[in-house]
Amino acid sequence: MSKIKISMSWSGGKDSAFALWKLMNDPNIEIARLHTTFGEESRRVGMHGIHESLIEAQADAIGLPLDKLYYPASGDNVAYEKAINKYLDELQESGISSIAYGDIFLEDLKTYREDQLAKRSFKALFPLWKNNTKQTAYNFISEGFRTLICAADADKIAEKWVGKTFDHDFLDSLTDQVDPCGENGEFHTFCYDGPIFKKPITITMKGVVSKSYHFKTAQGEEVEKKFWFADLG
Predict the structure, then answer these.
(1) Are residues 168 and 71 part of one domain?
(2) Mind listing the GO molecular function terms for this protein (predicted)?
(3) What is the number of other CB atoms lying within 10 angstroms of the CB of residue 169?
(4) How far are the Cα atoms of 31, 37, 62, 113, 122 from residue 65, in angstroms, in the given order?
(5) Of 1, 39, 209, 229, whose CB count within 10 A is highest?
(6) Largest interatomic CA distance in the chain
(7) Are 153 and 186 in contact (CB under 8 A)?
(8) Which domain holds residue 87?
(9) For residue 140, is it within any domain?
(10) Is the pTM of the predicted complex or chain greater than 0.85?
């Protein structure tokens, strides 16, 4: 039986790192490459705020080729979908027909990914799907992964945690309204060491930056949200 050849959707955070590790231990899977989407102007990963140079360092330490997808800022998914479809053309030419994600329980996101890929006869894999997020967080730490909080919702996470290691103290500080894996966007992480890496990533914490964004609620009301970002180098 031939192995399933995949490209891993790579954010640089703990969920994609843990999902990749599980796939690495699956004898039926061949991980061919990683791919990451970046803002065309910022050269950073979405709400993670991580610069492409650090993602490149991760890929180098893992030992897998990294494909970088760029798209302009826009208020909808059109630019993103255009970039992904162009990338799927490249994957088809290299015999890859599956993409893996680190999603855990967001049903609408899972459905969106599956529907978009199905249009191109691709399959989506979710190694962490429906895992208990509290147990997953503790398992991630116990397996030897090291990651830090690189971005956080200022309403949910105190500034003091930004740039700090994702550990038991951090998990113990969370309220019941915050998912232990930040699955609802409460915080994001950057993985710098662990069993998937041949060497740890060298990072420098330069400080914490705050940025505000405007969102529309389901009721059409416009609200302003502030987020913390670790300035990493």
Answers:
(1) no
(2) diphthine-ammonia ligase activity
(3) 10
(4) 10, 14, 9, 22, 20
(5) 229
(6) 53
(7) yes
(8) 4-125
(9) no
(10) yes
- The verdict on residue 137 lying in a domain is no
101 in a structural domain: yes
Find all residues with CB under 8 Å of 79, minimum gap 6, and list them: 71, 72, 73
Tens-level pLDDT at each residue, the chain (233 residues): 689 999 999 999 999 999 999 999 999 999 999 999 999 899 999 889 999 999 999 999 999 999 999 988 765 678 888 889 999 999 999 999 999 999 999 999 999 999 999 999 999 999 999 999 999 999 999 999 999 999 999 999 999 999 999 999 999 999 999 999 999 999 999 999 999 999 999 999 999 999 998 777 667 788 888 999 999 98
In this structure, the answer to whether residues 13 and 111 fall within a common structural domain is yes
CB-CB neighbours of 55 under 10 Å: 24
**Domain end residue (candidates: 125, 159, 180):** 125
Residues 170 and 67 in one domain: no
